Amino acid sequence: MNRTSEIQLHKETLRIETFSDGVFCIAVTLLSIEIGVELHGDITNKELAHALLAKWPIYLAYVISFVNVLLAWIGHHSLFKMLHRPDSSIMITNGLLLMLIALVPFPTKTLGEFLLTGGFETAVIFYTAYFVLISIAFRLLWYAASRKPGILLNEVTVVQIKQTTRNENTGLICNTIIFAVAFFNPWLALVLSFAMWVYWLVFA
Questions:
Q1: Selection from 140, 138, 41, 45 nearest residue 89 by Cα
Q2: How far, rounded to the nearest angstrom, does the alpha carbon of residue 150 sit from its chain's CA centroid?
Q3: Cα(145)–Cα(48) distance, rounded to whole angstroms?
Q4: Is 84 helix (H, G, I), strand (E, B) or coil?
Q5: How many domains does the chain have?
Q6: Eight-state DSSP code of residue 152
Q7: Neighbouring-strand partners of residue 83
Q8: How many CB atoms neighbour CB 143 within 10 A?
Q9: What are the residues whose beta carbons fall under 8 Å from the beta carbon of 182, sequence distance 6 or more?
């Protein structure tokens, strides 16, 4: 392959990754927009402090989702560092992933608003199910990238491919287990979500 073709392939990959980074950025921004207090009139310091403290479920949901989106972005970046030649299947599966990432503020807001209500279990089930969908989208993207020679860089070793495949499978299996746990113990499901952060940050 000549130098011009290599440059063109690099540009195509860079365009997809730049667009993807923008979607991740928008998703994180929308997460923060959902946070706020609605008080009107002449309120006291005590009333404002109480209102701010009462928002802790929203803060918790924000932190959980921010870390999940951050880890998703790191995984996405790591995958695209191995990419050599994007094709239509890469663009379609990446688009599916970005569609789900862009909507993360929706399950996040649902979790935060219903954390201390009778709808808590349903909120956690919905939230954990959503990240199962994101894991599936990641798995499809990696399948599209690794399914045939030439899509990944020549420098990518068999060991790296197996490691990434193992990580993607682990993420999907663990998120599915967390989703199942949410039906029986929603709080435990959230704790397990936190344990997933430790796994990805330390062991993956």
A1: 140
A2: 27
A3: 51
A4: coil
A5: 1
A6: B
A7: 152
A8: 13
A9: 121, 124, 125, 127, 128, 129, 189
Contact 168/139 with Cβ under 8 angstroms?
Answer: yes
3-state percent helix, strand, coil for the chain, nearest multiple of 5: 80, 0, 20
The residues facing 152 across adjacent strands are 83
Confidence at residue 129, expressed as pLDDT on a 0 to 100 scale: 96
CA distances 26 to 31, 63, 147, 198, Å, are: 9, 16, 30, 25
Mean of pLDDT over the chain:
86
- State the amino acid at position 172 in one-letter form: L
**Which residues lie across from 56 on neighbouring strands?**
none
Query: pLDDT tens across 74-114, in order?
Result: 889 988 888 887 888 999 999 999 999 999 999 998 998 89
- CA neighbor of 169 nearest in space, from 198, 199, 142, 202: 142
Of the CA atoms within 13 Å of residue 14, those in its CB half-sphere come to 6
Integer angstrom CA distances of residue 77 from 53, 60, 68, 81? 36, 26, 14, 6
Query: Where in the sequence is the domain holding 187, given as residue range(s)?
Result: 3-203
Predicted structure pTM score: 0.87
